[in-house]
Structures are given as structure tokens and as C-alpha cells.
Amino acid sequence: MYLPDQKVDAAVIGGGAAGMMAAAEAAKRGLVTLLIEKNDCFGKKLRITGKGRCNVTNACDVRTFMANVPVNGKFLYSAINRLTPQALMDYVEALGVPLKVERGNRVFPVSDRAADISQAFERSMRSAGVHTMNAAVRSIKTDGGAVTAVVTDRGEIPCRSAVICTGGMSYPATGSTGDGYEFARALGHTIEPPRPSLVPLTSPGDMCRDLMGLSLRNIAMTVFEDGRKIYSDFGELLFTHFGLSGPTVLSASAHMRHFGEKKYLIEIDLKPALDEQKLDRRLVGDFEKHRNSDYINSLGELLPRKLIPVVVRMSGIDARTKCNSITREQRHALLHLLKHFPVEIDGTRPISEAIVTSGGVNVREVDPRTMRSKLVGGLYFAGEVLDLDAYTGGFNLQIAWSTGYLAGNSVC
């Protein structure tokens, strides 16, 4: 615990992934370090990431990592090279948490327990001599253009430096309520408007609502912006009462940044394993097999039951048409629908439902070699409070670890 009469070299605000890393690294360098956390435990958001398993990082090289950061990736060059994904994996295993690599190079603790990661970093902080304080920060004081104190609801903490690691605005129940943006703005920093990323998407009309609860695996998905292809993926998606969710959809949302200005359409290839010729032969065979049946009753071997009435309606073929009466043109129209099933997208779910927040402290006002503010002496940033976000798969947590590591090793 922090003793009020102690002099603090570095006050770290926020006890998430970036904050715990920054605090531990600063303390290892001999700095009197205080970590201030308003929650009653550290790593509250960390403990629920990866559905409670914690996707620690992505086991890829730096070049691949950078390709998965669509926003301000160049800013991260120094931080990622100081603590690469492999270096982080070694770091975590040295803390006593064995790791494993799964599909897509996603890295998880062998135990599948996110709490093991959080607890390991808590042990690391204790071992390094980090002081801790359960308090809510109200503001950061400066004098002569440099940090002098952090003001909390439990009093004022004099300090030489402050590291803002308060996260974004996603999962507000974990404490990510945008406090850091206000601290930074009050000190003259520009805040890029926060918006949700890695978030479910909304769709107008009743189609998705009719398909609510239907999960599709092994589909191919393409995103169009004003008719131009901007992203494609393969995997799983889920229809909901409001639109679409699931891994492919969350990744796609990171590319869809101009709602209100541009129009977005997702096309789903329901049968990516079959090219158009093979799928056409499949349809010919199914219609021949059910030649005396109604069209709506002929698709049970091809599509999930819940999807059939929607496909029938969208195909424009009367549901009671006998299969032996379906024309070549009608069959080709159905084939096109199965390979290009359209879902109009008009927005995202609220930022509170996003995995990460896009937007935040403008990185042009932060030194990428140190994470130090270019505007205020002794002020540093790390993690999601910065205008940085990446695709799903462990990349965002790696950003938190790497920027926290760099800030902790730069603060003075």
C-alpha cells in the first residue's frame, strides 16, 4: 500500500494490462512507483477477455503484427520492437504462466484462465515493489508545463511523472469510462472521437431478426463500402435481433469507419467450398431428386432449416413452385444468391458493447519512442487510451503490453 508521506517518482493511473506492465517495469528500474486503480481489483477487463480465457497476444512476427493494425500502425514501430509478441510470450511464461498457440496464432494460457494472467502481473508488481492505491483519479496537476501531482478522491499525490493507462470506453462496467480522455484533454491534448471497434453490426429491416440465433460456420464474407470491396474473411458469424455478430463480423467492423457518410453491404458466400459450376450441378441434382416437390421443400440438404424461408423469399421463386418447373434463369438467380447473400449494414452496436475503442489521444502529440507527451513534461500514455486499435486475435492486448512496457521503461 502507498504511504501518503512517500515521494512518488511515477504515478500510473489504471490497473489494466498496460498499467500493470508500466508500473512493474518502472519499479524494476528503481523508481518509486504508485499504481492507482479505482476498481477493487486489478485487471478487471483483462479477466473477461477472450471469453474469460485471455487471448494474450498473437504469435506472429513484427511485420505481420503491423499489418493487423489499421489505425496508426507506424506509431507502434518502436513499442512493438521493444516488446515483440515472442518477447511477451517469454515474459509471461517467466512469470509462471505456460502458454499455448491456437488457430490463427492466437495465444492463450494453457489453463484457459484469464485470471492467471492478471494474477501473474500482480505478482510481478509486488515483486518489483510497486505501491498500490484504490482510488479514483480526479485530475492531473501541472506547473510550468510539467506534471506535479495526481489528484484523487483520497487526496493529492505529488509526483514527478504520470502514466495514463485508463483504457477506452468499451466494457464500462470494468471501469473503462473514458476518464483518461478527460485528463488528457484538460492538459491540452487532442482527443480523436471515440467510436466502437470489434463490435457487432446493425442491419435495417426484418431479415436478420427472422434469422436470430442462426450461427453459420465456414462461410466466406466480403464487405463493400460504396460498392467497393474493402475486406474479406472466412469463418463464423451469428444472426441476431439487431443484425450480425460473431468473429468474422467483429473483425469486419474495424474496417467500417464511415457510417453516415458511406453505405456498407456484407455479402455472405454460404457455400464457399463449391465454385459456381459445382454448386449449379448440386442444385440441378437436388431439384431432380425433388422434382415433384415444392421448391421450399427441396433445400433441406443444402441449407439450415431457419435459413430456407428467407432464401426462398429473396430468390424471387414462389415457394410452391414444383422443382421440375424451375427455369434455368431462376436456378442461376438462386445460385447467385447463395454465393452473394446480401446483408445491408447501417451501423454498429453501442461503444459499451465493443471489444475495443477506436479513437483517443492523438498519437501525433505523443513521442512513439517513449510514449511521452510532446505537450506536457512528465506525462506518458499507454494502452487503449491512445488512438490505436487492431483486428481481433490478440493484437490489441499486445498493443497494451508493448506500449505499457515502453512507457514503464521510459518514465523518469
What would you call the structural class?
Answer: alpha+beta
Helicity, as a percent range: 25-40%
- Which term fits the overall shape? elongated
Count, helices? 13
Straight-line N-to-C gap: 21 Å
Our estimate of the beta-strand percent is 25-35%
Q: If you average the pLDDT, what whole number results?
A: 94
Task: Return Rg in Å.
Answer: 25 Å
Q: What's the total count of β strands?
A: 21
Q: Biggest β-sheet: count, sense, barrel?
A: 7 strands, mixed
The residue ranges in which pLDDT falls below 50 over 5 or more consecutive positions are none
Q: Any descriptors?
A:
elongated, 7-stranded mixed beta sheet, single chain, alpha+beta
Structure notes:
- This protein is α+β, with helices and mostly antiparallel strands.
- It contains 13 helices and 21 strands.
- It has helices spanning 17-28, 49-52, 62-67, 77-82, 85-94, 114-128, 179-186, 207-210, 247-253, 276-289, 308-315, 328-339, 395-408, and strands spanning 8-13, 33-37, 57-58, 99-102, 106-109, 131-134, 137-143, 146-152, 155-164, 191-197, 201-202, 215-225, 228-239, 243-245, 264-269, 341-345, 347-348, 356-361, 366-367, 372-373, 379-381.
- Strands 1, 2, 6, 7, 8, 9 and 21 form a seven-stranded mixed beta sheet that branches. A seven-stranded antiparallel beta sheet has the order 16-15-12-13-14-11-17.
- Helix 11 (308-315) packs across helix 12 (328-339).
- The longest helix has 15 residues, at 114-128.
- It is elongated and about 85 Å long.
- The two termini are 21 Å apart.
- The relative contact order is 0.19.
